[in-house]
Amino acid sequence: MRPEKYRDLLVDLLQRSPGVQGVKVVEGGPHPYALSMMMGGRERRWQVIGQLADGAKHDTVTPPVTAGPPPFAAAPLDAAPDAWLAGVIGASEPVDTERLDVWSARGRSPGVTVRFHNGERAFVRLV
Question: What is the H or E stretch that residue 86 is in?
């Protein structure tokens, strides 16, 4: 899924999530395809980066593939930010998503790799 489209999907999803006080698209600045969310009185900014499927080109749309939602683990509001975000994404039961990988679970900075059934990926990192 293209970064702008996935960012917009996340904005919609996060606006409906318990504990989130506000979400907005962040245009310009050093992080394209970013969004800002308020939660617990704190701002968190996430940037979406996309990777096309093998052999795909930017001038054509990769067809969507749906095969059922990914497994996920729900996380409380005070969990690692990327674990919480992965739980929110997983709870929405996205049928185009194959797998969610939480970066902090591997000792990396907070982020989530969203692997789609069609071979595309979205990398959502805390900035």
Answer: helix 81-91
